[in-house]
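Methods — Computational structure assignment.
A single polypeptide chain was analysed. Its primary sequence is given first, followed by the predicted tertiary structure written as structure tokens.
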Amino acid sequence: MSASLSSASSVSPSAPATGAAPTQADLLDFVRRTAADTDLIASLPLDPEGRTWVRLEGPAGSEAWLIGWPPGSGTGWHDHAESVGAFLTATGELKEYSLATRLPTDGWKTLELSEGVDRERRLPAGKGRSFGRDHVHEVLNESTEHHAVSVHAYYPPLPRIRRYSRTGQVLRLEQVERPEDWQ
């Protein structure tokens, strides 16, 4: 389910200097302040079957989203291509699994990962993180009973998302999505 909503007027992103691209810190600050807007967070329609999302106005031309996560939902392994980003859990708790290695950006379909590259991070309400380009991760709501809601921001606006499957240490590129696939 997708809906359309602009960010609430109480969310006033601190814009980077005129003409400057937002940094990871700017994006993290934006998602932190947006997640604190309880009226905005409560306005997101939640679906018991699937994730819901609403696009927001991000700072300095960035792309931002408010996302609802029903119990047991997740993203699957993916990256955000050339975009840097940040996300923060507003309600509930999310778990992020990520790879602490830089993958080749193009030209491969299957890759064997080295031992020791896996990272795991719990993100209860109020906790978030920023990340650089080509960050590969999956985000899950592992709760069996409660929804989670999070705020995400990316710059530049997402040019594509690469989706992967993973079996043990083998990562396989499955699909490349473009903005028209999720907007």
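Note: Confidence is low (pLDDT under 50) at residues 1-15.
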